[in-house]
Design brief:
The protein is mainly alpha-helical. It has a domain of 52 residues. The chain is built from four helices and no strands. The protein starts with a helix and ends with a helix.
């Protein structure tokens, strides 16, 4: 399963790079967990707009645009 592990690391690296481009910083482990939680909520039927609002409400220092970028980064790197 080394190939699967490599892909997961690549996904993490790409996701974190997108988050950094947005201008956000934080604990990489926490950011990665957030990305996976976003995907779980998408699978449960939440819309990207709803999730961006949740991300912003839990992180009041970021704009809705940045929160939308976080959701988009999670979708493009983690969500199937």
């Amino acid at each position: 399963m080394t190939v699967g592990t490599g892909i997961a690391v690549a996904d993490d690296d790409a996701y974190l790079a997108q988050i950094k481009k947005i201008g956000l910083t934080g604990d990489p482990t926490g950011l990665i967990q957030l990305g996976h939680l976003i995907c779980a909520d998408r699978a449960a039927g939440e819309t990207p707009d709803q999730l961006a609002q949740v991300v912003q409400s839990k992180n009041p220092g970021i704009s809705l645009s940045d929160a939308t970028g976080v959701v988009s980064a999670a979708e493009s790197n983690y969500c199937a």
